[in-house]
Specification:
Elements lengths: L9 H4 L17 H20 L7 E9 L13 H19 L4 E8 L2 E9 L2 H11 L10 H11 L7 E4 L16
Helix pairs in contact: 3-4
Length: about 180
């Protein structure tokens, strides 16, 4: 028991041979080496801290509404368009309750064209008012997913690191099933 190996204390271990790290510059000063060590330590802290930064806190969401002739089908009462717009009104209210600093834009596709129903905005009342007016729109034509994507991208050219751009793909309700030829 008297012959315990000589151990250095934990706080002493970090200070061993520190003179080997320091190098003098041409004038004989270790200042450049000390500044380099401090710079590396600061850079290490910044990179470690960077993992805690939350990117994508502000979300830009574009909703594409189907305005095709099949939306006038009355399998849902009074028709598909009215039911879709009512559900979208509810979605807008819930979305802004859960994401108060985010923004929504609504795009309608019909007749192979995409039209902005509302601009990108963080005001839910503006979107709900536009959706209530859109209940009376006429539905006709064929879809154009490409045009809806190009409108959404043109409405939001620059998305910063603190923002994300979301554009869910629209689902088309068709009365006739599409079977590609195999």
């Amino acid at each position: 028991m008297d012959e315990e190996p000589e151990r250095t204390k934990r706080w002493e271990g970090g200070y061993e041979r520190t003179w080997e790290i320091l190098k003098e510059d041409e004038s004989g000063s270790p200042k450049a080496t000390i500044e380099d060590i401090l710079f590396k330590a600061k850079r290490k802290r910044v990179f470690e801290h960077r993992g805690q930064v939350r990117l994508g806190m502000m979300c830009h969401l574009y909703v594409v509404v189907d305005g095709l002739r099949t939306m006038e089908d009355q399998d849902l009462k009074p028709n598909r368009l009215t039911c879709t717009l009512k559900l979208l009104e509810y979605f807008v209210e819930e979305y802004f309750d859960q994401n108060p600093i985010s923004q929504i834009g609504i795009i309608v596709i019909k007749s192979k064209r995409a039209e902005k129903l509302t601009e990108l905005s963080g005001n839910p009342r503006k979107h709900i008012a536009s959706l209530k007016k859109a209940v009376d729109m006429t539905c006709h034509g064929e879809p154009s997913l490409y045009n809806s994507l190009s409108i959404a991208l043109s409405m939001n050219q620059e998305v910063g690191l603190h923002q994300t751009l979301n554009l869910p793909a629209p689902c088309y309700w068709t009365s006739q099933p599409y079977y590609p030829e195999l």
